[in-house]
Amino acid sequence: MKWLLTYLTSSIGKKQVMGATGCLLLLFVLGHMVGNLQLLYPDPAEAQAAYNTYSALLTKSKLFLYTVESGLAVIFIIHIYLAITLKLQNYKARGTAGYVVNARKGKKQFPTFIMIWTGLSLVAFMAWHILTVRNGIHYYYINPEVADGRVVRDMWLTTVEVLGNPLFAVFYLSVMLLLGFHLWHAISSAFQTMGVSHHKWTPIIDKLAILYCVVVAIGFGATAAGSFAVVNFNEKAKAMIEQAKNPDYQKALEALSERPHEEYKMYAKIISKKPEKAKFIVERDRLLRSMDVELIDGDKKWGKDPLKKKFKHKKKGRGLGDEFDDSEEQDEDTESRTEEGDDL
Predict the structure, then answer these.
(1) What are the chain's domains?
(2) Are strands 140-141 and 152-153 parallel, antiparallel or unpaired?
(3) Could you tell me which residues come within 8 angstroms of residue 60 by beta carbon, excluding any fewer than 6 positions away?
(4) Sign of dihedral through CA atoms 169, 174, 175, 177?
(5) Residue range 230-243, pLDDT digits in tens
(6) pLDDT, tens digit (0-9, with 9 covering 90-100), for 97-124
(7) Could you tell me if 217 and 176 are in contact, meaning their C-beta atoms sit under 8 angstroms apart?
(8) How does DSSP assign 134-145, residue by residue?
(9) Distance between CA 43 and CA 57 in Å, rounded?
(10) How many angstroms separate the CA atoms of 253 and 139, rounded?
(11) Residue 64, number of CB atoms within 10 A of its CB
(12) Stretch (H or E) spanning 310
C-alpha cells in the first residue's frame, strides 16, 4: 500500500489520476449532450414526450440515480482538487517565472493559458445548473406513451422555459464556448499525461480532440438555440406551454400523481389529447370516491373514453342503472354535460 500512496502523492500520479477522471467526465458530457438532442425534434409535442421519457428513465430507480450522482460527484471533486493542487505546485516550483516554451507544441496555445479559469467557470456553472434542476419549478406531465402513463416531471418544459430566456440563452452559449476551449487542451493533455505520446498518433489524437470539442459545443449550443426558437417563435409550442403551466392543470396532475398508478393510468390518453379536461376528470373521480363508487367497463358502445363508463355501487352491490336510465338518450345527455365541463 505504501507504493500506492507514494504514487498518488507524486506529481505524475496526480496528473494521471486527473487525466483518468477527466476521461470519465468526457463520456458523461458526451452522453448528456446526446440526451439533450431530443429537444430538437421538429414537433414540440414529440420533443416533449421524448425528453420526458429520457428524464423519467434516468430517475426511475432512486438507487441507480443516487449511485450515478454520487459517483459523478466524487469524480468531479477529485478532478477539481487535483487540478487546483497541481496548478499551485507549478506556481510554487517556478515562482514568478513562467514557461515560455512547451515541449510538444512550441509556443503555448490560448486554451492552455485559460485552462484553470475555464475549468473553475464550468464548475460554477455546473453547481448553478444542478441547483436550478433540483429547485426549479416542478411541472407535471402525463402521456400514455411516457413512463407507462405515470405522472412524471415535465423536464422538457422546465428546460425550454429557461433556455427560452434571451439573456440565459446567450449565457448558456458562452459557457458552451468555454467548455469547448477547456476540452480542447484537456483531451490531448490527458493522453500525454497517461503516457500516450507518439510522433504518429499524437497528431491524430489532437485532431480527434478538436473534433470532439466542436461536436460537443455545437450539440449543446444547438439545443439552446433550438429551445429558444421553439419557445419564442413556434405557435404550437406556445399553446402547449400555456396549457401545461395552467395552475388547474398542474393541480389536477399533482392530485393524480398521489394515486396508485393503475387507478389513473386509464386517464393518461384522454388528458394527453385534451389537457383542458384534466381538472374535470380529477374532480369527477374525487366525487365518485366520496360516494364509494367505482368505474367498471361498460358495453362496447362506450368506446375507450374513460368519461364514457358505467358505474356500480360497491356497498350495495347494485348498478346505478337502478337510479339512472341507461338509454341512448341518457348516454348522449351525459356525454354532452361532460363536454361542457360540468363541475359536478
Answers:
(1) 2-241 (1.20.1300.10), 273-339 (no CATH)
(2) antiparallel
(3) 147
(4) positive
(5) 999 999 999 999 99
(6) 554 444 444 445 555 567 778 888 888 8
(7) yes
(8) HHS---EE--TT
(9) 21
(10) 9
(11) 12
(12) strand 310-313
